[in-house]
Amino acid sequence: QWIFLDGSFVRKEDAKISVYDHGFLYGDGVFEGIRVYSGNVYKLSEHLERLYDSAKSIMLEIPYNQQELTDIIVQALQKNELNDAYIRLVVSRGVGNLGLDPASCPAPQVIVICEELAIYPEELYEKGLEIATVATRRNRPDVLDPKVKSLNYLNNILVKLEANMAGVSEALMLNDEGYVAEGSADNIFIIKNETLYTPPGYVGALEGITRQAIIELAEELNYEIKEVPFTRHDVYTADEVFLTGTAAEVIAVVKVDGRVIGDGTPGEETGKLLEAFRDKVARDGVQ
Ligand code: PLP
């Protein structure tokens, strides 16, 4: 396996970063997770735009332009002979001194890791997920905006720990006002009376690329779709609930905080959306 690091490709065993890298010391950096379906990098320009936006927000200069990053990703896939893959693109502040001032880091580090895809077991899609809401709140947009996909994922990790403690596979974060924001690394949708609802970005969610793809798909399929804030009550009483994300695609939720959703099996509309999504990604070509 070949990893892009320090401007060239190195073997996985040799892919090591300095302990002085501020990505390691402080979580100072940004990243993307991207899928490759049958050799097509799915929504690459959207992912790159989000990466550059995240970087701009934290005043991190990415040392390559979009075309150069695209070329590096294509090379990484070719070198690793991958057709269906998950790509992790990381840009850290790079090596500096022990102080947290980014001014001591002259050269941001760009890393590209591609792996054979480890999809969630198909069984999870057939059975649906049991999830919980947890105490960890989504960080407020006036602190570090949730739109920034930064290397600082401690909040999300706390959510995952709480999910583990509760014995469920995933958990939902609420915002300070108690509105449902998102999962630890997935966006949420609910369906009630044939209408789809998903929290707007300002509630405190990453503007997921899969979320946007599902919104567009749902519009094509003539669903009514509303981006409005909603509460746990709305989730408990929804007809269907599902999560979306690059890794998870579309995955049904069948129980939330012990409340059974619908009849406790993955919803019919969720199934249709997953099928339509998978059909679309197989046809959407980028490269
Ligand atoms: N929310 C968070 C916090 C995430 O890290 C992710 C994963 O990237 C998502 C939502 C889903 O976004 P996307 O569909 O772009 O993968």
TrEMBL record:
Name of a matching Pfam family:
Aminotran_4
The cross-references to SUPFAM superfamilies, in alphabetical order and at most eight, read: D-aminoacid aminotransferase-like PLP-dependent enzymes (SSF56752)
Pathway, per UniProt? Amino-acid biosynthesis; L-leucine biosynthesis; L-leucine from 3-methyl-2-oxobutanoate: step 4/4; Amino-acid biosynthesis; L-valine biosynthesis; L-valine from pyruvate: step 4/4; Amino-acid biosynthesis; L-isoleucine biosynthesis; L-isoleucine from 2-oxobutanoate: step 4/4
Q: Give the signal sequence positions.
A: none
Keyword Transferase listed: yes
The family database entries (Gene3D superfamilies) matched by this protein are listed as:
3.30.470.10, D-amino Acid Aminotransferase, subunit A, domain 2
In Gene Ontology terms, what is one molecular function of this protein? Answer: L-isoleucine-2-oxoglutarate transaminase activity
State what this protein does.
Answer: Acts on leucine, isoleucine and valine.
**Protein family:** Belongs to the class-IV pyridoxal-phosphate-dependent aminotransferase family.
Name-wise, this protein is Branched-chain-amino-acid aminotransferase
Organism listed in the record: Salsuginibacillus halophilus
